[in-house]
Amino acid sequence: MATLEISGLNKSFQVGKQRREVLRDIDLTLADNEFVSIVGTSGCGKSTLLSIAAGLEDFDSGSVRVDGVPIAGPGLDRGVVFQAYTLLPWLTARQNVEFALKAAGRSRAECREIAAEHLQLVRLEKFADAYPTELSGGMKQRVAIARALSYRPKILLMDEPFGALDAMTRHQMQELLTRIWETHRLTVMFVTHDVEEAVYLSDRIVVMGLGPGRIKTTFEVDLPRPRREEMAGSAGFIELQRQVLRSIREEEAGAAVL
């Protein structure tokens, strides 16, 4: 169980002889077991924010803490899943999960047992000995999720994890992630361009604005759990989706004027 606290965060990149400000004064806290989606128009810094939380990028000022402790690079307290599957092609599904566990210092027997448990969690136990080239896109992403969860992180950071999947597979993965989250109660930061996906999955939706990236507004998702497919047709779901889209489009319109 974990709380992720981002306070006064500022980030810039060197572009030629100048520095370009990417994130400004980001204050965001994810509570224990909370599922928070980050949305916004392209270029607002969503992925940069997630990479900083993962310890994969540095920042200019501010702080990032897990349970009050400042992060110092990547750590086993945070699991990360990207849009690209990042599986090692010469290893089977099981071996890809075991690879992460070996790095965490687990014994061979523990690696085998935990990998089997997590492949079963994502419903891939029958494909444990398959190589990535033998798996569909959705299956590869399931392996990536199993790997990220296998070393029991406190926080799961996901950057457009279903963005490369077809619509049907994407929906299946959303249902799978919802089931896993409801069972294991992880703290999740989820970056997505898909507002419907954000509403379906989240407890809270954070809209980021442009120029430079900042938190524009936050929406509470007051929809009952467990979430089900038919909920997407409800009046409350549709109205919240409309409000979030309007907030994003306001930023896009402002950027067009600039």
TrEMBL record:
Molecular functions (GO terms): ATP binding; ATP hydrolysis activity
SUPFAM superfamilies cross-referenced by the UniProt entry: P-loop containing nucleoside triphosphate hydrolases
Keywords of the record: ATP-binding, Cell membrane, Membrane, Nucleotide-binding, Translocase, Transport
Designated name of the protein: NitT/TauT family transport system ATP-binding protein
The keyword 4Fe-4S appears for this protein: no
KW Cell inner membrane (keyword) present: no
SMART domains: AAA
Span of domain ABC transporter: 4-235
Alphabetical list of InterPro entries matching this protein: AAA+_ATPase (IPR003593), ABC_transporter-like_ATP-bd (IPR003439), ABC_transporter-like_CS (IPR017871), ABC_transporter_ATP-bind (IPR050166), P-loop_NTPase (IPR027417)
Superkingdom, natural source: Bacteria
TM stretches of this protein: none
Family according to the record: Belongs to the ABC transporter superfamily.
A Pfam family: ABC_tran
